[in-house]
Amino acid sequence: MDKTILVIGASGGIGSQVAKDLINEGYTVIGTYSRISINNPDYKSIHVDLLSKDSIQNLVNEIKSTNTNLYAVINCADIIEYEDKGIEEDIKIWQRTMAINLTSNYILAKYFQDTIEQHGRFIMISSTDAMFGGSITASYSASKAGVNSLAKSLSLLFKDKKISVNAIAPGWVKTKMNDNIGKDFIKKVEDLNPLNRIAEPQDISNLISFLLK
Questions:
Q1: What is the distance between the alpha carbons of residues 17 and 21, in angstroms, rounded to a whole number?
Q2: Across-strand partners of 46?
Q3: How far is CA 113 from the centre of its chain?
């Protein structure tokens, strides 16, 4: 399969599973990391800081310098920080969260618009929190609601190349990002779920594989 896919956040819980599965399916993968480096010889890894437009631009330049056309860009990177830490700190959390969870998707789309192939894919990660909000996760919820709206706008941006745009909105997913939540809380969430469990990264990866077909 001669298709190259860029996985943003390939060192994270969801992103690492996605990258692994795509390689097994025969795709060529380029993965990015921020704080945790990637130790995987099966694909090229590139550092990127989604808080920095210049860092994203460097990523774009590095990929374009190799004349690589991308079949898909998949952004699995996001953060969640709990607010109620004082006004100034909450504002900083808002700014970081919006930059990583929402704004980075727009910047990536604009920079890679001419690099993604005809009939390619652009996939983002949203959340069920976009529909419900949160008293101490206002920034996270708002950023994910923004992703849902952005998916519609990017569909119009990419319409001439017929690039499909999707935002996947899982609920709780079993990753290290949720390790500090506590087993009792997770158990309550599982009991509310018809499957009696929270999602595994594999569940999200399976859906991404479907959307790439």
A1: 6
A2: 32
A3: 17
